[in-house]
Amino acid sequence: MEARAVKQIPTFEAGVLFARTEGIIPAPETNHAIRIVIDEALKAKERGEEKVIVFNFSGHGLLDLQAYDDFLNGKLSD
Known about the structure:
Elements: H1 8-22, H2 28-47, H3 65-72
Helix pairs in contact: 1-2
C-alpha cells in the first residue's frame, strides 16, 4: 500500500462518474480512492492485464452536495 495525492478536480470527476454509474453519491474523501481505482483500472486495461482492485468506500456525499454543486458549476479549483 502507498499513499498518493490527487488534486480536487480529478477527484470530483471520479465521484460524478461513480455516482452516474453506481447511483451512489460518494463523499469527497472517498472520491480520492475512486480516482486512484479508475487510474489503476485504466493502466491494467492498457497493459492487457486482468486485475482485482479493492478499495474502501468510506461514506456517502449527501452532506457534501454543495461541493458537488460548486464542482459542476466550475467553482472548485485544484
